[in-house]
Write a structure and sequence with these properties.
about 230 residues, alpha+beta, five-stranded mixed beta sheet, rod-shaped, disordered C terminus
Length: about 230
């Protein structure tokens, strides 16, 4: 092989290697560029989801009130809010449960004082929505501090209340409802944290079944504390 042919062969091999290296660099850049784009898209999608989720569960619409606790009365009370979120109330609290008929405000407010969430709904709420509402109520938060009942004349189809806090809702599937329950049930504004929402002194009847009871003539109903986890086993 002549010197010229050997030189030409070397130059040709160098060009081939250079071209191969350029292809590899382009492939690497394309791979990293595509991967980076995918990462950016994923971050964007996750970011949008988190923003939408935060907006959907925002509790900015919650209205808050200030009421003095411990005001026990043996009379019917006229409340400013519908349903009430605090103020004077009966000596006896309502047993936390799901009711199909209205209950006395005065018993429900006492349950709020103990940390309960009171979910009220219009009596004409469609059955499908009522079933959905009960599903949320019976699967979210602490069931022994969950009170559900129909309430004529509500300002919205569904209203969730705790002591000093209230949220009006149009639909039981609104993610704000479980967010409200998780934040305010037995929340920091509960006047009597740890007091039970049941027990022998709790009222289990609806308003059409029994009138408001008079003031106790003997021992005052005990604000019994819930047992600790170790005691409840």
């Amino acid at each position: 092989m002549t010197k010229e042919k050997a030189q030409a062969r070397r130059e040709h091999l160098q060009k081939m290697r250079a071209e191969q290296q350029r292809k590899q660099r382009r492939a690497a850049l394309l791979m990293w560029g595509t991967g980076g784009l995918i990462v950016v898209l994923l971050v964007g999608v996750v970011g949008i989801y988190l923003v939408n989720q935060a907006r959907a569960t925002s509790l900015d619409a919650v209205t808050s009130y200030k009421y003095e606790a411990g005001q026990h009365v043996a009379k019917s009370v006229t409340y400013k809010e519908t349903p009430p979120v605090g103020g004077e109330h009966n000596n006896y609290w309502q047993q936390c449960a799901v009711y199909d008929k209205p209950i006395h405000n005065e018993h429900a407010v006492h349950s709020l004082e103990h940390g309960a969430v009171w979910i009220t709904y219009r009596p004409d709420l469609p059955k499908a929505q009522l079933d959905a509402l009960k599903d949320v109520a019976t699967s979210t938060g602490q069931q022994d501090y969950m009170l559900v009942s129909p309430y004529p004349g509500l300002p919205a189809p569904i209203v969730a209340s705790t002591w000093g806090h209230q949220l009006k809702l149009q639909d039981p599937s609104d993610p704000k409802l479980p967010a409200f329950i998780k934040k305010y049930q037995n929340g920091r504004d509960t006047p009597e944290p740890g007091a039970i929402c049941g027990g022998q002194d709790a009222i289990t009847t609806t308003s059409d079944q029994a009138p408001l009871p008079p003031a106790p003539t003997g021992n005052t109903p005990m604000e019994t504390l819930a047992p600790s986890p170790s005691q409840s086993k």
